[in-house]
Amino acid sequence: MSEDSQVLMAEAILGEDAEKFLKSDIGEYLTGRIEQDIEDAKAGLVDVDPMDSVAVMKLQNDIKRAESIKQYLSEIVVAGRNAYELLHGNED
Q1: Which among 3, 10, 60, 70 has the fewest CB atoms less than 10 Å away?
Q2: Structural domain of 72
């Protein structure tokens, strides 16, 4: 197996593991918490004093951090699927 194939295999396995994790009770709990954190921060933006730039920045950072975590998890799954497709395509 070539080095490229080994890397693709590792990505495919990692993506599958991430997908399984996200479907697990813990993964669903964390995903729910991330969504709740985003909603809480958005609700906070509605009520925060717009002149309180520190509070506004904190809420914006809370949203960005939570969205980044969601994005990282999504990227792992997508990369894994893509790697699997490349490996599967190479076998045909």
Answers
A1: 3
A2: 3-91
